[in-house]
Each structure stands twice: as structure tokens, then as C-alpha cells.
From TrEMBL, chains A, B:
Source organism per UniProt: Recurvomyces mirabilis
HAMAP family on file: PanC (MF_00158)
Nucleotide-binding listed as a keyword: yes
Identification of the protein by name: Pantoate--beta-alanine ligase
Pfam families referenced in this protein's UniProt entry, alphabetically: Pantoate_ligase
Key words, A-Z: ATP-binding, Ligase, Nucleotide-binding, Pantothenate biosynthesis
Domain of life: Eukaryota
InterPro entries: Pantoate_ligase, Pantoate_ligase_C, Rossmann-like_a/b/a_fold
Chemical reaction(s) catalysed: (R)-pantoate + beta-alanine + ATP = (R)-pantothenate + AMP + diphosphate + H(+)
């Protein structure tokens, strides 16, 4: 989707290590935005992106590793990707789509009902155009990785999925193209999601296996931060809402009551950073003056263990 | 879908002329049958089919043409075709599907809402498994050909679609695996659909271009036959219902009011042969004793003309 950051570059670096030729696709896919979502305001920075890719390509060449540099960047028009009917983001939607249910309706899909239909559809097209031996997706969008794996299996697509670890800022915030909307105040509070998930992970690592024991710790962190912000003045606080904190099966993404150690689980969450109630002089603001609500997601894989 | 007849063999013969290797798939795909449709009773004759294919393979080898014989028959299990979730024929349906709208909801799709979702889904899987340079479909299922062409274009599948003319019985009835359900009496009346479409085609060939002028002739034929049958005794008549007679755009399948000569049109129809009201001694019956309602479809392409 462009608006490249270190997370995207990490995908390319991983691909370059394992393949002779790397293809990069940049396409802000309209069908994965709901009709009331932020397609129009989504950052589109193709020129800057191309600069970053050229620089990375140079680095990869200089490194002289066995892996290939960037063979091509595919940045198609919408008429190429949707050649017959204009892209439709409505439900039920006219056009040619891939639907993956019930996976696409869970977690992120609850608040974004057309999102994964758009993702699966555009990925099917891209896979057919490029015919890659391996495709690289970031761990940050864990539901996307599960859905793409399911699509590849169900449709017998001849490609391997590689999941690349989430790139993070120094304080642990997952990198995202939408982070540019966060000014310093919302940026500082936005780390709460990571902190909540880490608290739950710690419980798992200490041997807890029941949903309640594990998620209680995450909710403690989130609720405490939420109360702190609510108690602050409009000029000091940054309010947010928790959309979900989930403990789910890694293949079906269905919520689990008790983690099967041999199977592991996916701990994930989404919060919405609300627009600031009031701004202060001298404060560093995000794109849009911190008036844009920003959804942040993150996750931790609770690996299977032999205990 | 198996239950092979001359129509299927014609597809293979055409494929053998144009390709070194021919792959045949036989799979009665559950997701294209509605929950109340005839999946259980649909003829499944794999052993007989394999015999016919072996015979044809021998003929192709003997002919010694440049084209290849049958390389392989792919007759997968449902667990292979639907590896994660069991096939679901309900609406909205759980699973991984390809949907092609609005095409899939027109004509046949009106009475069979999940049909083309199932067809597109299974074809996407088969195309990915076999990765054919060319795929062969029969003209008889004209809506299927339009939908497959749309799917290939929209998803950038790397395969060419070849449409093979409909194979017909001597009197013109389109061959279909479901024809075995027609005993002599329903068989004789079933030809009405072909006759109706031919009457309309004649009008087009004589220069008529308006929908009303063209379709009136088809409805005349159908209505006359329908009245004749209704007036006969239960032991003599074979009643039927017209589902639709359509004059549609070749690419969108939307109904047209006036045919654009440079674009042509698709004339198509569907009738339902009702179970016989009463049977006579000595009469030859179809499979199921002529108690199974049988849907018949047929079509004629009104080619573009330079007039």
C-alpha cells in the first residue's frame, strides 16, 4: 500500500536474502477501504517510496549477498487491477471478489467488514500477475497472514508465505503507515496496546493457560492507562478506546478459553486513538493536527511450548 | 462434473487438436448445488466415464495427429478441493469463494443463487492446480463461459478460454448429463426450447434488431407448445414451465432492448420439464421414472454482423 517505512523495507530485505529476484508491489487498493474509511486521506507517497526503494536496492547490491536486488516495482493503475467494473467497497459489492469466511469477519473484520475481501481479492490478482515463489507479509497484520495462508491453501496457489517479524519503534510501537497521524502526545499513549499485550504474554510465559488469567493482565494495563488519560485535562490527555483484545486459535482465529500448549495462540488487539480534545502551543502534532482518529493494531504469537 | 456424453468428448477432441497434453478433470462440485438441489441424485458414473476416456484416448493416439492424447484425468476428493472447511452451499456460506457479481445473479443465477459462486470457485482451484495454457468450455453453458472469461480477466489468470460448440442430438436437443432423466415423452417436448430460440434467431437473421420483435417469435413457439401439452390428457402430455427467455449483451449478460449489430447478443433460455402427471404402459421412461423435474438450458449466439 505504499507509504513505506522500515517494516516494508524489512520485508524486502528478507525477500532479498531468500530469492534471486524481488518484486515490490505498491498499490493503494480501494476495495479494502470501507465506504466511510480513509481511502482519500490514506498517505500516498509514491515518489518518496521509489526513492526509498532505490536506496535499498543500492544497499542490497553493495552488500553483494547471494540474494537478488529489486527486480521491479509494480505500481499498477486501478484500471489494471479492476479491468472490468470499477472497484466497489460496498456490501454486498459488485465485482469479482475472493471471500474467506468466517476468518474475514472476525477481529479486524468486525469493524471493517469489506477489508479482508479487498485484501484477498487484490492479493489473488497480484499473485497471478507476478507468480512469485514466495510472498512476504508482516507479522503486524496477523489476521491478514492467516487469511492469505488460508487462501493459498484453499485455492491451491503455488506460493510459499513468509511472515516477517514486526518492525518497531524504540519504545516498541509497531511501525505503521498510519503512525504519521500521531503527534507526540497520542504517540506516547499509543504504546499502551503493546504494553497490554506484553503483560498478557508474560502471564503465558509464567505458565498461565486460561483466557481469563491471561487477558485480565492486558485489560489491567489498558484500563489503567485509559483512566489516567480520562482524568487528565483536555490539554494533557490523549483518550483512546479499546476495540478488542483477543486470544485466538492461530489457524481459525476463533477465541480460545484455554490455550493448548501444543498449538499456541495469537494474542492481538486494536485500539482507537481519539482526536485530541484540545491542543497546546509548542506541541508536535501529527499529520492532520491530531484530529484524525487512528486505529492501531498489534499482536504477539504465543508460541507452542512443550510444557 | 462427469456423466460424460458427446459434448464432453468434443471438448477433449478440440483440446487434443490444439495442445500437446490434455488434462481432464472430473469432479461433481458440491458448492455449485443449492442446498435443495440434486447433488445426491446427480449422475456419478466415474467408472463408465473412465472407460469412455480410455476409448477416446485410444482414438486420439490412433489418429496420430500432432495433438496430444489424454495426459491425465484429475478426479479429486472433496477434501482435496476443499481442504480446510467442508463445502458449504448455503448463502452466505462459510469457506473460501470466488464471487463474480452481478453476472452470477442473472439468468441461471436467479433460480440458482449459489451456482456460479461454486463454479467460479472450483474453476479457480482447478486452474491453479493444472495451470493450463488453455481451458475448454462448452457453448451450452453460455453464462458459465461469460463468467469464466470475466474471472480470468479480473484475476489476471494466465490461461486462454476456448468455447466449443454445443453437441446436439439429431433433433437438435442440446446434450446434457441431465437428459437421462427424460423419458420419450418429455424428451420429445423438451426440444421446444431449441425451437423457440431458433425462431428468434431467424428473426435476427432476417434483420430484426428489437427485443420485442425477436423474442415474440420465441414466446410464440413456447406458448403454443405449452398450450398443446396442457390440453392433452395426463397420459399423453408433458408439461413444462419457461423459466426465462433472454436476449442479452454478450459481455455483461444484461438484457438488451435493441441489438447493436456490431456487438451481437446472446439468446438463451431455460425451461423446466415437470414430472409426468400419469404414465402409460409400454412407454420408455427416463432415470427416476420421469418423476424428476428437469431443467433444460440452451442458447444461440447472435453474431455481430456488418449490416
Amino acid at each position: 500500500m505504499g507509504a513505506l517505512h522500515e517494516g516494508h523495507l524489512s520485508l524486502i530485505r528478507h525477500a532479498a536474502k531468500e530469492n534471486d529476484k524481488v518484486f515490490v508491489t505498491i498499490y493503494v487498493n480501494p476495495t479494502q477501504f470501507g465506504v466511510h474509511e480513509d481511502l482519500d486521506s490514506y498517505p500516498k507517497t509514491l515518489e518518496k517510496d521509489m526513492g526509498m526503494l532505490q536506496k535499498l536496492d543500492g544497499e542490497l547490491k553493495d552488500a553483494g549477498t547471494s540474494g537478488g536486488p529489486i527486480e521491479a516495482v509494480f505500481a499498477p493503475t486501478t484500471k489494471t487491477m479492476y479491468p472490468t467494473l470499477p472497484p466497489d467497497s460496498s456490501l454486498p459489492g459488485t465485482g469479482s471478489f475472493v471471500t474467506i469466511t468466517p476468518l474475514a469477519g472476525l477481529l479486524e473484520g468486525k469493524s471493517r467488514p469489506v477489508f479482508f475481501r479487498g485484501v484477498a481479492t487484490v492479493c489473488m490478482k497480484l499473485f497471478n500477475i507476478v507468480q512469485p515463489e514466495r510472498v512476504y507479509f508482516g507479522q503486524k497484520d496477523v489476521q491478514q497472514t492467516v487469511i492469505i495462508k488460508r487462501m493459498i491453501r484453499d485455492f491451491h496457489l503455488n506460493t510459499d508465505v513468509r511472515i516477517v517479524p514486526t518492525e518497531r519503534e524504540k519504545d516498541g510501537l509497531a511501525m505503521s503507515s498510519r503512525n504519521v497521524y500521531l503527534g507526540e502526545r497520542r504517540r506516547r499513549v499509543g504504546i499502551v496496546l503493546r504494553q497490554a499485550l506484553r503483560a498478557a504474554e508474560a502471564a503465558y510465559k509464567m505458565g498461565k493457560r486460561s483466557r481469563d488469567d491471561i487477558l485480565a493482565l492486558a485489560w489491567d494495563v489498558a484500563n489503567r492507562m485509559s483512566m489516567e488519560q480520562d482524568e487528565m485535562s483536555a490539554e494533557a490527555g490523549a483518550r483512546f478506546e479499546v476495540d478488542y483484545i483477543s486470544l485466538a486459535d492461530p489457524d481459525t482465529l476463533e477465541e480460545v478459553a484455554v490455550i493448548d500448549s501444543e498449538h499456541g495462540a495469537v494474542l492481538s488487539g486494536a485500539i482507537k486513538m481519539l482526536p485530541l480534545d484540545a491542543v497546546r502551543d509548542g506541541e508536535v502534532h501529527g499529520v492532520g493536527g491530531d484530529k484524525v482518529p487512528v486505529r492501531l493494531i498489534d499482536n504477539i504469537i504465543l508460541e507452542r511450548s512443550d510444557d
